[in-house]
Amino acid sequence: MISRKTLFYLIATLNASFNPDYDFSNCRAEEFSREPSVKHVMDAVDSTFFSSSARQEYNEMKSQLWSAIDSHISLSDCEIYRFNSDSNFDPWDDCSIWAYYYFFYSKKLKRIVFFTYRAVRYVYIT
């Protein structure tokens, strides 16, 4: 179960990130899930990229990515949430094949790192 305060922070982060085009104020707690561990999230991100055309680029920068996130939020002290958007609240729905939204929340630092990534359709223009 997600606390009201945490839910407010997550929704506020979404609103700040996608303002003014989207309003997430009506999101419900059920649309967010707590991730079991940092390793679980890292493995999920790795798996997604390794099965995509961005495999090589991601492999070259993944250690820098996780180090940068860790330096700002201290991953070992975080709660991690995932936004499980439905089409009513997904800002990337119209142009993405898939999209993921993670929130690394440090109560101790009073800080959230919002991490989102997506795959877009490549459109050939002739």
Automatic annotation (TrEMBL):
Q: Which InterPro entries match?
A: Maf1, Maf1_sf
- Superkingdom: Eukaryota
Record-level GO cellular component terms:
nucleus
Q: Name one GO biological process term.
A: negative regulation of transcription by RNA polymerase III
A Pfam family cross-referenced in the UniProt record is Maf1
Q: Kindly list the GO molecular function terms attached to this UniProt entry.
A: RNA polymerase III core binding
Family to which the UniProt record says this protein belongs: Belongs to the MAF1 family.
State what protein this is by name: Repressor of RNA polymerase III transcription MAF1 homolog
The organism that produces this protein has a lineage beginning with: Eukaryota, Metazoa, Ecdysozoa, Arthropoda, Chelicerata
